[in-house]
Specification:
single chain; mainly alpha; 197 residues
Length: 197
Amino acid sequence: MIENIIKREWDFFDKVNNIGGRANCQDNYPTFYIHRKAQFLNFDEQTLQSYLDDLIRYEAIHLNPITLKYAYMMESNDPIHYNEIKDQIPAIDDKTKLIVDELVAIHLEMLKECNQKYPKFASISRDVNASDDNENNTSYETYLRGELYTYSPNTLASYAKMIIHMVHNKINFVLNNRDSCAKEYGYLSIDDAESKI
């Protein structure tokens, strides 16, 4: 299922039309694959299936969720251009904003814990907070918010349930994601990567 999701995401990603032209990352499938796989390896089956259903639905209605994700991110990293396009993208209702804000807050706490434990790994990762955003820099906070805004209500609910379960069981989703990423790059673990960076 993960391979199917990544293939569909890449097809969407490849078709994104950026304001400044095609981005270099759109021609770097290996890096895209590693980072997306690392994330999805830490999703539960229910959330994976719901997200796959979202992608199939987006394709059926000819709407690109990756384009939407970057458009939503522009509210923070490029507000001038965002104001020019905001009426052309689906509006986010207040309930969804509230759920996403709570999920982002949980992730930022996980990220803080991860960065404190693995400062070298943190040094090669995205900035944490939206306050550091600009046209050439998108924070973890803004990227996550943009992605969650593209989830259907069903997927968002499933994702929230998954994250809450992890919190209750003292599982750090961000740390696990980065551990998976380190392994995809050939390290034994995030600890191994931290010792070699």
